[in-house]
UniProtKB/TrEMBL annotation:
Residues 10-308 form the Enoyl reductase (ER) domain. This is Zinc-binding dehydrogenase. It comes from Streptomyces pimonensis. InterPro entries: ADH-like_N, Chloroplast_QOR, ER, GroES-like_sf, NAD(P)-bd_dom_sf. Coiled coil: none annotated. Signal peptide: none annotated. PANTHER family: ZINC-TYPE ALCOHOL DEHYDROGENASE-LIKE PROTEIN C16A3.02C (PTHR44013:SF1).
Amino acid sequence: MRALAATAYGPLEDLEFIDLPRPVPGPGHVLVRTEAAALNAVDKALITGTMRHVVPVRHPFVPGVDVSGVIEAVGADVTRFAVGEAIVAWNDVPSGALAEYVLVKATAAAAVRPAGLTAAQGAALPTAALTAAALLDISGTSPGDTVLVVGAGGGVGSYLVQLANRAGLVVLATGRTGDQEFLDGLGALHTIDYQHVDITEEALRLVPGGVDVVFDLANAGPALALTAGAARSGGRLVSPLGGPRSFERGVTAVYGGTTTPDGRLAALAAQAATGELRIAIGAEYAFAEARRALVDFAHRHIRGKVTITF
């Protein structure tokens, strides 16, 4: 089978198309014929090696944690899925979605793809939507709370704005010039153009005293102190990227990442199929252009998700 792979840690431009044996599903796994994949920040980190001390990979390494395709074979003890079913999955590491076939764990991290979703839409869902839902879970918010979503135009952010709005939260979102209509359509009450105004100052102008929770999807480490300043005294900052445990004025930090509670991915897919949850795809590439897709993903501002179709 053809796959896009990293033969060693290095720049995205060094990725190569290679031939690999078609995987055979073992117990608890299914073999999926890939129809589409989507890109995430973790793909770049695993390819370049910035996460090698935390999550090392074996080479040749095939990136891609979001996959949408059709089950070709099932391993022993698999009763959750059947041959011929279309599924979507968050495949974690060792990833592998940028190949013609990929092994997927037959767990709650995979779900049947509803008829109302295209393959590309299905691929754009798992990591970003599951992460957004997980961050909302740990935020401690209640209906009526005000929140600031930093990085609202990206994959996770586009889902988080929608889920927060549906949870009854008042959403302020950050974006670039020209993103306002897009973010308003997702449910943001105010869009802050970070290219022309200071995010924290503008948030405090819009919500004197500060928002209840800041979701920062863009910054990590000490840089989080800047956006934490938009939270009220005793408020919270939520991030998937890690940083200090607390900030000035009693603002506390909560960190989390992708989780797969049973039934959640299936529920998100069902909502997306009916249009209740919008899937924003900012760029689509063919598999032959997958290397360029990763380079563009790393260096261009793209709203929503980047997908690759086979």
